[in-house]
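Q: I have 689 residues here and want to know how they pack in 3D. Can you give me a structure?
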Amino acid sequence: MFKDEYGKNTMTLQQATLPVPQFDQIQLADLKQQIEQTIQNGQNFLNQLKEVPQNSEAQLATLTEVDQLENNMSESWGILSHLNAVMNNAETREVYQSLLPSLSEYYTQLGQHTALYQTYQQIHDSSIFQTLSEAQQSAIKLALRDFKLSGVALQGEAKKRYAEISARLSQLSSDFSNHVLDATQAYFKPLTEAQLKGLPQSSVELLKQYGQQRELEQAVATLDFPAYFAIMTYADDRELREELYKAYVTRASDQSDKTEFDNTPVMEEILSLRQEMAQLLGFNNFAEYSLASKMAPDVETVHQFLVDLAEHARTPALAEIAELKSIAQQDGIEELKPWDATYYSEKLKQQQFNLSQEALKPYFPAPKVVQGLFQIVQRLYGIQIIERQAPVWQDDVRYFEIEDQGQVVGGFYFDLYARNGKRGGAWMSGFRSRVQTANGLQKPICYMVCNFTPPIGNQPALLTHDEVITLFHEFGHGLHHMLTEVDNISVAGTHGVAWDAVELPSQFMEFWAWDNESLDVLSEHTETKQTLPQELLSALLNARFFQSGMQTLRQIEFALFDLTIHRQTPALNSQQIQETLNDIRAKFAVVPTVPYNRFQHSFSHIFAGGYAAGYYSYKWAEVLASDAFDRFESEGIFNTETGKEFRKFILAVGGKDTALDAFRNFRKREPKIDALLRHQGWTNTDKTA
């Protein structure tokens, strides 16, 4: 009988109660056909809608039909885009790529459909509007905004050009992401025993596992993040670190040996098309267009916010880099190079706080951390999380359901470990949304995906504390998706939430990975079964603000780079993109860089994800998350009443309330930056951070 890594019989799990996809039976050809049919149904509906229906009843029925079409689309396309991210192979990719043009065409047609837009407008302007639920009112207002941002008012050639740009951009962002994945997977380097010096045993085992996968008898370095990070943190061989660093920061660029994956032309074309699109819609640049749907009022405000935050971070960052240079000098390194930074940071951390990531890892076996995370959210929000049996795309994926007072409210999948064919990073994607359908209430389901170091041999996977934080972060997004109480698909869960506020629930959850009480529930030594001992706990908490100035400046560098390249007109070419980055680094970065660094060529967040002219959102939402957590600090970190209110005002409302209103309802005031500065360790107050 098959046992999972928790050691219990998986056969005893009850079947999923929600209707889940049959991943073990999905045939790509059927999926493709299903998506084509869904697109076709959508187009037929739009082609038949020639004018605004006569009465309000028929108008509302039209809106319901649009929601239903959207729901069917997210169902079939959601499965394919998920498989394309977690099981990427030639076949999946081909089907995904072949459908992109018609999908883009459909969404453009939807966004520019005059009669549909007028139907929304008429309901909005009629007396019936006031009788609709708050959620529906918000959904209609957001839809009207999005129609304008999708060029509904454009005429003739301009309308046609907008559609061409949209189709091309969806293709280019997919190309960008594929190039990064292919470039990451194309690199590997067999290592000698001498090159493994300094690496802890667990990392050596992992690299040997990567070697076995390539049918080699020796350890292999790859650019998968667990492998790359282990070498940059621990490898004593400076040349090896440099070689790997170079391979990593030149991925998918003109500087790499593998020029077939070069993202230079892709980046240039993306920027130029975004710029053209913004101007078609009457904006001066793409950054303005991007902010039209966000919480931040305008580009200048965001720019100023980032520069001000950089000022706060500068003094601590300069002190941190000086420490780093001095510890490297003790090893005879006169000039600190980028491939030295992580290695000496780890040494410094050990020296200052007696803390090593490696010593912590045995205390965070994945099963225990997952169990602890569930206990914490159960305490906070009064919900139960139960593992159930469901078909999955990979053996180590698990499926769970959330119950609230005995009622299932949602389901989620965990796909936690790095593997071949899986895109890097961590994300939550809402697969099914909460919505009222003809057949009753559809419950939300989401995927949470990470790239942790996988279990080695028959040992459970051991997580670093950073990985624990990542898990909490993604789970915050998942709760936002699943605990929604809104039944309208366009404002349920994370839908309709301003992009710069969507990180609030995720960053907010991270605070529990730092709490004494929580760490007791999260940690258990894989052999001795002890929780995290006091000295390690103190070291972990003392090291919390380690290099927070440098880390903040790094985030600000990325955010300012993103904002700047999207506000420049005309659109920049690759040389100007590089000059912009160099210029921002010269002003804000304290960590040295090298001329061949092509970070931008793999910056998928802004070229292939939804963060274009929006990367600042992480910092913007951090202000909100810190300030929200501040209330728990004063009322009790596990205060169930405060938890209830956070659930009620933030997690449950989705996009029904504006982000600012939702925040005000929870805090009973405007957001303040004070808590963030304190949580970075830059201001001393009597509150424990």
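Q: Anything worth noting?
A: Residues 1-9, 685-689 have pLDDT under 50 and may be disordered. The first strand starts at residue 188 and ends at 190.
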